[in-house]
Amino acid sequence: MVIYSYQVGGSLPVDASTYVVRQADQGFYEALKAGEFCYVLNSRQMGKSSLRVQTMRRLQAEGIACGVIDITSIGSHDINPAEWYLGIVRRLTRSFRTKVKALKWWSEFEGLSPVQRLGEFIDEVLLAEIPQRIVIFIDEIDSILKLEFKDDFFALIRACYNQRAEKPEYRRLTFALLGVATPSDLIKDKNRTPFNIGKAIDLQGFRLQEVQPLAKGLEGKVDNSQEALREILNWTGGQPFLTQKLCQLVVDACGDTSNPQSQDIEGLVRAHIIENWESQDEPEHLKTIRDRILRNEQRAGRLLGLYQQILQQGKIAADQSSEQMELQLSGLVVEQQGKLGAYNPIYGAVFNQSWVEKTLADLRPYAEAIAAWLASECKDESRLLRGQTLLNAHVWAEGKSLSDHDYKFLAASEALEKREVERNLEAQKRANQILTEAQRKAQLALEEEKKASQRLREAKQKTEQTLRKGLIGLAGISVIATTTVIVTNTAVRDSVLDLNQQLEMYAKPAVVSIVAGCRGGLYYQPDDGTEAHFESDSYGRIFSGYFINPDGYIATSSPVTELSDQGAANECKDRLLDNLAQKLAKKLQKTPDYIKKNSNLLNSEFELVQYVILPNGYSLPFSIKLKAASSSTSITIIKIEVKNAPVLKLGDSKEVQFMDYVIALGYPVATDILDLSKKQIFAASATEGRVANPNKKLKDSSSVLQIDVLAEHVSSGGPILNDKGKVIGMIAFQDFDLNTAITFAIPTSTVRKFIRQAGATNEKGLTDQLYRQGLELFWRGNYEGAKDKFEEVKELFPQHSEVDLLIRKSDQKIAEWQKNSYILWLASIGVILTVTLSLLKGRNTLLATEM
To answer: How many helices (H) does the chain have, and how many strands (E)?
Structure first.
């Protein structure tokens, strides 16, 4: 009696009784027989190798010479091109039994590159020695996809196809590629022609009319073998590995006689495949699918999010995006009639919603927060990320392809944080207004008190005067009173500023922001011929800097110059393209990869952006005068075309002591400033603190100052001022740890060397002298003198950020002074008349008494 056995895993022998002939068998055989290049690209354990064995047998029976190269037998780890290509040649010599000895022949062509030697072997050996038609099967091609030189190999195969037009003998040569990959994976280099030849063989799962060879093994084991086979296919979806395995489980459960357990196929599936699947997945199948999905951390979140949509909706529209293709190659899903769905109920039960959520939770640092937010139908804003947790999430998400839920969650978090920042700024603004108003009222009350005291003194003096002083004395007293009030009003200061505020006013006009990035437009033309779309955006980085010379020399950090390198410029262009594709994908409900596939970045629209933004919003392009060679030094001297710029003077960083008071200036808010047509107003932010360590050393022995000022990364390049308003360092970098941040600054002893090397000097100009004089006059209450100074500053440097506002304030104070003087003059006249009448009355009374 013949023992009927199912084979679970591995290639079936050429005479296997359980081999299932599918539609692909005939298509593969006929295409290769006709000389077509073919590729069978599908997920693992779909029967590709078994298909190759059966097709080779049929072709060889037709007199066609066949050879096979199993890439896994050559290896792809720690192997150089010469070793790998020699392995290919040796397997070809064995498969086709050529007359040449592989090693000897290989050494004779030592002057050629490895891929050229393989090409010579095909041309001079295979096609010369073998007169009949040749088919070379290359199995497990996914084993070489990570090799740096694999593009050359597949380009050689394409070249063999192209040779048919010139060399008739190449028409006898055909290749068949089998593996877990897509045609776009074979040649990745965008500068080379993609692998665009050959016929794709669609290897589908088993169908009921095709699996009769499997029914024979169930006969005598179950009541109705056809019904049992139908239920098996319902569970497996025709997946070859699972179908063979489930048939074997039925046979094992029954033994040699009919057993009721064998009729409960669902029970067998749940007990032996689904439940505790990780411990009984032998040979490995489900683990292979899991590992394929999770092998690339950058794409795992996107694949899981896509699969989660399929579970929630049942099926989604297939669009041939790279994510959908990758998910299909895992074997978890299959495309049918333009829809993408789970391959079978077994996969749906093992890789269910709970598994997806748990796996995403293991990947996401914000898993609990997004789960609660989604559970609230995206309404509970308390679950959104803020501050450092949002920054950490962006760091984690950098370079990854995430699910739509992730992008929606992060976008909502960013929007909430922006609103809260705006609310906080508005609240701070209101608080400042309230404080200013309170100070103003307090000042007015003080003035009223002074006036009242003065009036008391005047009244007392008047009662003590005698009639002998007469009207002349009265007029003198009134003039003195009026003059005293006016002088007192003029001497009152506009406000009492502390050291921090004074240093800010002095220094802010010299602090600038610097933009290095790019902007452009994306033209998208759908492949279905519908309306085209255009989307524009910008991408860039923001830094801080400060004027060191009136002629436009600026000191900043070295990362601003990164676009001067072509590689960095290309990276910026790629980031911009990604941003544009993301924006357009959300509008059109497509994937970003699909958008990029059907669009192009318009060269006419693309441009690099490298500008200095002055504090008043005025922008100018810069040139690089000197860039630090060491990343730890992180200093760059740039220049813009201006004259009479405000300047910060460098102090002596060697005199800095532990716990010295400092102020850090910079631009910590990453506003969208690449739209340079908008004249926005920018003002540097100031943060005060102390020197934590004046003698820190880096690994390369470079000196840095450690300060306890929280300066965000976009403040890089901003100045650190001492209590005299001089620069003692420049913000370089930070090290974040939970809710604390350590800020390091490059000392001025290092900055000064770079200034000299750039051919510049650190000196203040007339603008700074006049501006400081104007501030001192303004604070003393001499508004007319202050206004004159500020107007001179504006003539010298029209882009100055502060003088326009100070001129307006001076005008307001002058107008108030004139109004008060007029009122005092009228009051003085009234006092004179009143006292005169009183004196006359008193004189009359005295005369009457004397009489």
So the answer is: 29, 22
